[in-house]
Design a protein that fits this description.
There is one protein chain. With 420 residues, the protein is of the alpha/beta class. Helices cover 39% and strands 12% of the residues.
C-alpha cells in the first residue's frame, strides 16, 4: 500500500468517525456479498424496520381491519384511514424532503403516469390562452422526453428543445433564450440523471413565469438527497419517485406536487373513481375531488406505501440539511479518489466539480467502461452504467460510508491497472 493510498484510507476512516449520520447505516438490511453499494441513486437499500413494519401492517391493519381500514373503522392501528393515505403520505414527503406546505402533494401512480397526468393538465390549461409550446431538453431522462413527445402529438403542441452540455445541464441562460409568448409548459429534471447537474430551479422557475409559462420539475434524483424549497421557489408542478433516496423499494409509487392555487385550475385527464369528489356514490358523471386529491385516479397503492413510512421516519430524524451536507462530502471524496487513482487510467469526471451544481451522484467516463461492470459486480462493487461510456457512482448519505466509497473505487482502480 502506497503512502497516498494509506492516507486516503485514513481520511475515509476519519470522515466516518465524525459522520453525524453514521448510526443510520446500521438500520439498513445488510448485503453480505456486497462490499460497496454505489447505486443508491437507482434503488435505495431496504431498512430493517421496513420488514418489521410490513409484517405488522399485514397482521394488524390488513388482517385485523380488513375492508374497514379504508375508512378507519375497526381495530386498524394506522394513524390515518387508508382512503387518506395519498395525501397523508404526500404531506410527509413534502415536509421531510420537498420544502412544501401540506395539501399540495399526493402519492399515487408511477412517475410516468403522474408525469402524463400533470403535463396534460398543464398543457390543456395553457392552450386555452394560445400557449402551445413545450420546452424540454435532449438529455433528460427518456420517460420525460417520451411522455412529452406523446402529449405533443396528442394535443398538437410544438416541442422546443434545449441541448445542454452532457457533462452539465440546463442553465437559466438557455431557458431565457427559448421561452416566450407561446410557452405553455417547461419540464426539466432538477438533478440530471446522467451527469448529476443540479439545476438552478429558483432562477429557471422565475424565468419561465416571467414568460407566462408553467414549470414542472422532475425530482427523481433530488428528493431525499438535496434540499428543495418548492413553495419558496414558486414551483407549479413536480413529480418524483420514491425508490431511490426515499428507500421505498422497487416499483414504489411516485409523488406529485401541485401548487395550491393551481389545484382548481388544472384538470388531470385520467378520471378514475378514487379522484371523484364522492367516490362511493358511484353516480353518473365526473366531478373531481377538491384540492390535490383530484390528481388521484385509481385505488391508492396502500401496501406499497408502507415502506415509505419507515424511510420518512428516518429522514425526519436525520434532517434533509444534514443529509445534503453528507452528500456533498461523499461526492467530494469520490471526486478526490477519481483524480488520484483513476485519472491516470484515462478516467474523466463527467459531473460538475462545483458541489453547488452537483446532486448526489458522480458520473465517471472512460472508453470501454462497460467491459469492467460485470467484474465489479462479481467482486461486490455495485455501481450502474449509462451509455455510452459512463459509470455512475450513486452515494446515498444515510446508508453509504466513506470507507465504502474508498473500497469500491479501489477495486475499480485495481481492475483498470491490470494488463489488458
Amino acid at each position: 500500500m502506497t503512502a497516498e493510498t494509506l492516507d486516503l484510507a485514513l481520511r475515509a476512516a476519519e470522515l466516518d468517525a465524525t459522520d453525524p449520520l453514521a448510526a443510520h447505516r446500521d438500520r439498513f438490511v445488510p448485503s453480505p456479498d456486497v462490499v460497496a453499494y454505489l447505486d443508491g441513486n437507482s434503488l435505495g437499500r431496504p431498512l430493517i424496520g421496513t420488514a418489521e413494519r410490513l409484517d405488522r401492517f399485514v397482521r394488524e391493519e390488513w388482517g385485523g381491519g380488513l375492508i374497514r381500514a379504508w375508512t378507519g373503522d375497526g381495530p386498524a392501528t394506522s394513524t390515518q384511514p387508508w382512503m387518506d393515505w395519498p395525501g397523508w403520505v404526500g404531506d410527509r414527503i413534502a415536509a421531510a424532503a420537498l420544502g412544501a406546505r401540506p395539501g399540495q402533494t399526493v402519492v399515487a401512480d408511477s412517475t410516468t403516469v403522474l408525469l402524463y397526468k400533470l403535463t396534460r393538465a398543464a398543457v390543456d390549461a395553457q392552450a386555452r390562452d394560445g400557449r402551445t409550446e413545450i420546452v424540454l431538453d435532449t438529455d433528460n431522462f427518456p420517460t420525460d422526453r417520451y411522455v412529452l413527445e406523446g402529449i405533443a402529438a396528442e394535443r398538437g403542441c410544438v416541442l422546443r428543445w434545449i441541448e445542454p452540455d452532457p457533462a452539465e445541464g440546463v442553465t437559466p441562460e438557455q431557458v431565457a433564450a427559448v421561452v416566450g409568448p407561446g410557452t405553455g409548459l417547461v419540464l426539466f429534471s432538477h438533478v440530471a440523471y446522467r451527469s448529476g447537474w443540479l439545476a438552478d430551479a429558483a432562477a429557471i422557475t422565475r424565468i419561465v413565469h416571467d414568460a407566462g409559462g408553467l414549470v414542472l420539475w422532475d425530482l427523481c434524483h433530488s428528493a431525499g438527497s438535496v434540499e428543495l424549497s418548492l413553495d419558496a421557489w414558486g414551483v407549479d408542478l413536480a413529480v418524483g419517485c420514491t425508490y431511490k433516496y426515499l428507500n421505498g423499494g422497487p416499483g414504489s409509487p411516485a409523488f406529485g406536487y401541485v401548487r395550491r392555487d393551481l389545484q382548481e385550475v388544472l384538470r388531470q385527464p385520467i378520471q378514475g373513481w378514487m379522484g371523484r369528489r364522492d367516490p362511493f356514490l358511484m353516480g353518473p358523471g365526473y366531478t373531481p375531488a377538491a384540492g390535490v386529491r383530484g390528481v388521484v385516479s385509481g385505488t391508492p397503492p396502500i401496501l406499497a406505501m408502507v415502506p415509505l413510512l419507515s424511510a420518512l421516519d428516518q429522514l425526519d430524524e436525520a434532517g434533509i440539511a444534514t443529509v445534503r451536507a453528507k452528500s456533498v462530502a461523499l461526492t467530494e471524496f469520490a471526486v478526490e479518489l477519481v483524480d488520484a487513482w483513476l485519472a491516470p487510467h484515462g478516467v474523466e469526471v463527467a459531473s460538475p466539480r462545483d458541489p453547488a451544481r452537483r446532486g448526489g451522484h458522480v458520473t465517471i467516463r472512460r472508453a470501454g467502461f462497460h467491459s469492467v461492470l460485470d467484474e465489479l459486480w462479481r467482486r461486490g462493487v455495485i455501481p450502474d452504467f449509462r451509455e455510452p461510456d459512463g459509470i455512475r457512482v450513486g452515494l446515498a448519505p444515510l446508508s453509504t460510508s466513506f470507507a465504502e466509497v474508498h473500497t469500491g473505487l479501489a477495486v475499480l482502480r485495481d481492475l483498470l491497472a491490470q494488463p489488458s
